[in-house]
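INTERNAL TRANSFER SHEET
From: sequence group
To: structure group
Subject: IgGFc-binding protein N-terminal domain-containing protein

Please process the attached sequence and return the structure record in the designated field. Keep the field labels unchanged so the import script can parse them.
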Amino acid sequence: MLPPLHALSQTYFVIPKPSYKVPELVRVVSIVSNTEVRINDGTSMQVVLLESAGSFHEFSLTSESGVIITGDDKIQVAQISLSDSIGGGYGDPCMSLAISPEDFLTEYVFFVPDTELFALVQSNLVVIYKKDAKVKLDDVYLPNNTAVIDIADSDFIFAEIEGISPGTHTLTGGDSGTRLAGILYGYGIRNQYQMPIGRNLGKLSAQIGVSKSLLSDKFRGTEMSSRFTDYLPFEAPFLNIATVSKIECALLCSESSTCYILAIKLAEGSVWVECLLYTIAAASSQLHSAPGYTLYRRLK
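Return from structure group:
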């Protein structure tokens, strides 16, 4: 998912994968012309000038402590894994967008794909947080002996949690105001994925897909507006899962920082509800025919 321009930042962290060392590239893209970019790996500083809007600079990620990338204007940063047939056939090229400290949230609900269904060996979670902060995964504190790595010469560190089990998980700080970030990745035979588990997109525009004539349903403080029936966005959902009820699907959307649209379909001959969650990118996506689905937009 590409964040809207207003949600882009000037500073980003790019973090290596401690337990799965594969060649990786970092691509820095300018939004405006004559953007000066500084790349700090903790031991050296590289300065690059991106002369035109949309131009980019690319370099290999070799620092085990990651890098801090700062522009004098807003930039976009991507992390590209070149893992093709690494270590006996594991891996596949993939890309994810880097995280800015401005993107950090206080809590996340994220989903880990099934290892057998997606032919994965395992999924790991890299957590980014301040040095004096505490972190909880599924409401359990990370052990005090968790190995952490300083991010360049900043006040932030990162830790890797290996072997995250498939299913839904939560990531929070030890205190209610602690902001942190997570990058989920997994690999298998000629297969790999990586993505942030969520990010702050700022205030969403009220102009996107608004219609005052539609009815609304309310689930635990989250208002969902019924949009269309028998249609789905062409944009792929970031989560496709079976839930026990329509309400549970709505709660998954309300607890996800990236959910903007959801679709629900009652499974024939079953008590399960098919639940599809979409990011804001789906709001501008074209629709295709999908009999049986009801599409909702999250209002708050």
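Handover comment: The radius of gyration is 20 Å. The chain has two domains: 5-196, 216-299.
Transfer complete.
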